[in-house]
Structures are given as structure tokens and as C-alpha cells.
Amino acid sequence: MKSREPLPSDSSSLHLCLIAYMSDLWMLSAALTPYHPSFKVGMMTSLDHTLWFHSPVRADEWLLYELYSPKAGNNRALVTGRLYKQDGTLAVSTVQEGLIRSKL
Questions:
Q1: pLDDT in tens, 64-75
Q2: What is the pTM of this model?
Q3: Are 30 and 97 in contact (CB under 8 A)?
Q4: Which of 59, 63, 70, 78 shows the smallest number of beta carbons within 10 Å?
């Protein structure tokens, strides 16, 4: 993932904020993988979202986002993620707990 437009080099806080925003967009979708294709999402929302920044990172450079959901059930899901820079360096670790409900 990366931003569509180049960002200012001197604004590291802008890069970190944008990475936090982008990392939240797809995390809970990883928890839907084990569900049957007929499962229809009625509501999906984040309950908490935590990030650890391990090294300097830019939001306007390509990042590989690896997602894994170790537990999903009873309308709750836990998802972990790792963002890697192009050189393979781990830049960010993420964890999110979410609420997922099916359509009635």
C-alpha cells in the first residue's frame, strides 16, 4: 500500500498519521477469510487499533501489508498485521480488535 500522491519529506508526522489511517482500512477484512462466501456483513467496526513504529517509514513509498487473524468468532475478531518496507525491513506492527455482525 502507499499514498496516491507524493507527500512532503519534512513532515514525518503526516506520514505516520496516513499510515495509521491506511492500516485501519482493511484489517478486519482479514478476519472474514474463514467464513462461507454466503456470509453477508451487516456491520463491521473497529473496537481498538494499535500500532508500533519500528523504523522510519514513508507513506508515499510501497509497503507490504501482511495480515493474519488468529481468532474470529462470537461477533468479535482479532487481527494482527506487519508493514514491511521495500528492502524487507519491518517498519510497523499493528493489532486490531473488531466487531463483525452478519445481516439478518
A1: 999 999 998 888
A2: 0.86
A3: no
A4: 70
All three cell numbers of 82, joined, read 506487519
Task: Give the C-alpha distances (Å, rounded to integers) separating 70 from 10, 18, 31, 76, 96.
Answer: 37, 26, 8, 11, 11
Closest CA to 95 of 104, 77, 57, 9: 77
Q: Write out residues in the chain with pLDDT < 70, as ranges.
A: 36
**Could you report the per-residue pLDDT of 33-44, keeping only the tens digit for each?**
777 677 788 899
Alpha-carbon gap, residue 20 to 69, rounded angstroms: 18
Supply the pLDDT for residue 9. Answer: 79
Give 102's strand partners: 41
- Residues catalogued as catalytic: 24, 46, 96
